[in-house]
Design brief:
The structure is a single chain. The protein is an alpha+beta fold. The chain has 2 domains: about 1-30; about 30-115, Ribosomal Protein S8, Chain: A, domain 1, CATH 3.30.1370. About 30% of the residues lie in helices and about 25% in strands. β3, α1 (about 45-60) and β4 (about 65-70) form a beta-alpha-beta unit. The chain is globular and about 50 Å long. Bound molecules: zinc ion (ZN).
Length: about 120
């Protein structure tokens, strides 16, 4: 979870750009293009992968990326076979929650994209 750099108040909602407590947050940079994060190829458990997805989505919205690409794998290698299907379902849910659009990656069935439409 992010914290306000001014007062340390936890900011628990996606894409919020000011602190509900002190109303401060340093001016942010705006980044171009897609943010890409691999959550399945470093021996992650599902819990860890899930945390990485949540943090990546928050970062993608905060920095106004066009979209977020999550590489979750699809193979039969231990972690990936668990993370792949769960990540796909979770990303569909998150896309709805943040008003984005879920899409599979046409070139890589081990990856999914949330377009953020901003
Ligand atoms: Zn604050």
């Amino acid at each position: 979870m992010r914290e306000c750099p001014e007062c340390g108040f936890p900011i628990d909602r996606f894409g919020v750009d000011h602190c509900p407590k002190c109303d401060g947050l340093a001016p942010r940079e705006v980044r171009q293009g897609m943010l890409e994060v691999d959550v399945a190829h470093a021996g992650e458990t599902w819990e860890h992968a899930r945390e990485k997805i949540v943090a990546a989505l928050d970062e993608a919205i905060y920095y106004r990326h066009a979209g977020l690409k999550i590489i979750h794998g699809y193979g039969s290698r231990s972690g990936q076979s668990i993370i792949g299907p769960r990540a796909t379902a979770f990303l569909r849910h998150l896309a709805e929650e943040v008003g984005g659009r879920y899409a599979g990656d046409r070139n890589n069935r081990g990856a999914s994209i949330i377009w953020l439409n901003r």
